[in-house]
């Protein structure tokens, strides 16, 4: 039996605003937290003692957020329903000694994060954003949201082999952006510039986590505006949908589960960090929630045994120019609804029982869903799904939205898929 959808194209327009406001994982979790605060959630510090009160709560740690809603009906052994996602995207990140250049050009030294499509970063107007760590132990977000840097491509006249042989990029030599002119490179120039931009005193910044991003805003695309082009859909599309779904689920107080959003950092490079899915963050939050409500280890075991996680991440829509690279019987299409991601070698965590959980949620939400498997001749990517299942012993199902140009500066999805995903997530969280 289906219910009326909660979200429509307005959700997609809000997603576009979210993408523009979240150039880094730190900005993404700050934006998610702001939305949760407006819905009545409150932040709890990991260093404080937690109480067993009901209502919405969240924990921030770096570029990760875990939020949950405890209904009045919850017992210590009540299972969780988790939407898992990640906040990071492949990009170019600033090195510890960022000031570089030569031949009259001032450049910023960057390191490649994750697996970006390098060619998509060429000749783009890039901003700079991230987190500044200050001398007093605090931190501040920074966002230079204007054309500041650019990775210039070599002119065709200087490499006539490109049309025939394809573009070949060396990550070290060819991907360093320019940001001005000058023969003298002074160490500390970039950080002094950022201090001035953010109203800080010189020398106040002692550490930084900075990354570049394209300043071109998200936009509808196509004759009928049936597509959306934008940055960081992998995987802020899922973070946004999960946040909206958690807020929607928190309006009910008769939930049979405790709904949770877990958005991790560092998925693109293995998830092994204190803010990654392979770290202790999620397990610690769930356990403390059980114990704060007077639960025992037995209650914790019962809760985890009944818990299900939907690991929501983008997947591959069939590419019209490369259809032979997809599985011949599985061609997910844009605006065809969310995708169920399957790999029998456990690159995805989905099994038959998990498929049933997701199918029931989609049926209840009144949205279609599609299945994705990789071509047997192609290696399959992976997600936080298998990590979550193995680390916590939690039934996990891999899902998402089908997109094109994954890991590009600018990705492409159907304009209806984001709100169909969000509707399915609400139905899942409500149980």
Largest sheet: 9 strands, mixed
Strand order of the largest sheet: 1-2-3-13-4-14-18-16-17
Query: What is the CATH architecture term of the largest domain?
Result: 3-Layer(aba) Sandwich
State the helical fraction. Answer: 25-40%
CATH topology title of the largest domain: Aminopeptidase
What is the H-and-E element order? Answer: HHEEEEEEEEHEHEEEHEHHEEEHEHEEEH
- Find the structural class using helix and strand composition: alpha/beta
Overview of the structural elements:
With 431 residues, the protein is of the alpha/beta class. It folds into two domains: 9-89 and 231-430, Zn peptidases (Aminopeptidase, 3-Layer(aba) Sandwich), CATH 3.40.630.10; 91-214, Aminopeptidase i, Domain 2. It is built from ten helices and 20 strands. It has helices at residues 9-21, 25-38, 162-165, 189-197, 233-249, 281-292, 297-305, 352-365, 384-392, 417-430, and strands at 42-43, 55-61, 64-70, 80-86, 91-102, 105-113, 126-134, 139-149, 178-181, 205-214, 219-221, 227-230, 258-264, 308-312, 315-316, 339-341, 370-372, 395-400, 402-404, 411-414. A nine-stranded mixed sheet has the order 1-2-3-13-4-14-18-16-17, with helices on both faces. Strand 7 (126-134) and strand 8 form a beta hairpin. Helix 5 crosses helix 10 (417-430). The longest helix is centred in the middle third of the chain and has 17 residues, at 233-249.
Which terms would index this structure?
single chain; 431 residues; alpha/beta; Aminopeptidase; Aminopeptidase i, Domain 2; 9-stranded mixed β-sheet; 5-stranded mixed β-sheet; 10 helices
């Amino acid at each position: 039996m289906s219910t009326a959808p909660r979200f429509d194209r307005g959700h997609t327009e809000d997603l576009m605003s979210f993408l523009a406001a979240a150039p880094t994982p730190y900005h993404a979790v700050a934006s998610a937290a702001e939305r949760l605060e407006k819905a009545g959630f409150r932040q709890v510090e990991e260093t404080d003692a937690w109480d067993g009160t009901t209502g919405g709560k969240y924990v921030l740690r770096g570029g990760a957020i875990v939020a949950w809603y405890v209904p009045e009906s919850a017992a210590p052994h009540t299972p969780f329903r988790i939407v898992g996602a990640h906040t990071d995207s492949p990009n170019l990140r600033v090195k510890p000694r960022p000031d570089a250049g030569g031949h009259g050009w001032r450049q910023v030294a960057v390191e490649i994060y994750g697996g970006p499509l390098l060619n998509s970063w060429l000749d783009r107007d890039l901003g700079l954003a991230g987190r500044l760590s200050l001398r007093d132990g605090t931190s501040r977000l920074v966002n230079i949201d204007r054309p500041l840097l650019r990775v210039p491509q070599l002119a065709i006249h200087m490499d006539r082999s490109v049309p025939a042989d394809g573009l070949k990029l060396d990550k070290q030599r060819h991907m360093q952006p320019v940001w001005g002119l000058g023969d003298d490179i002074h160490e500390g120039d970039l950080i002094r510039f950022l201090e001035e931009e953010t109203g800080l005193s010189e020398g106040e910044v002692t550490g930084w986590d900075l990354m570049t991003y394209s300043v071109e805003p998200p936009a509808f695309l196509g004759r009928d505006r049936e597509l959306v082009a934008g940055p960081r859909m992998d995987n802020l599309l899922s973070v946004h949908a999960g946040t909206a779904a958690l807020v929607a689920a928190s309006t009910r107080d008769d939930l049979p589960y405790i709904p949770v959003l877990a958005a991790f950092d560092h998925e693109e490079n293995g998830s092994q960090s204190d803010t990654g899915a392979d770290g202790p963050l999620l397990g610690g939050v769930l356990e403390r929630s059980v114990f704060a409500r007077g639960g025992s280890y037995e209650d914790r075991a019962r809760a985890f045994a009944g818990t299900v996680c939907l690991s929501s991440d983008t997947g591959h829509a069939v590419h019209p120019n490369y259809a032979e690279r997809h599985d011949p019987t599985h061609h997910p299409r844009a605006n065809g609804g969310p995708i169920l991601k399957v790999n029998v070698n456990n690159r995805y965590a989905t099994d038959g029982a998990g498929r049933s959980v997701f199918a029931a949620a989609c049926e209840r939400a009144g949205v279609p869903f599609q299945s994705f498997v990789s071509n047997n001749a192609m290696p399959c990517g992976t997600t936080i799904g298998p990590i979550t299942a193995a680390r916590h012993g939690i039934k996990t199902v891999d899902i998402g939205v089908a997109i094109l140009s994954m890991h590009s500066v600018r990705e492409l999805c159907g304009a209806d898929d984001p709100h169909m995903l969000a509707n399915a997530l609400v139905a899942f969280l409500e149980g």
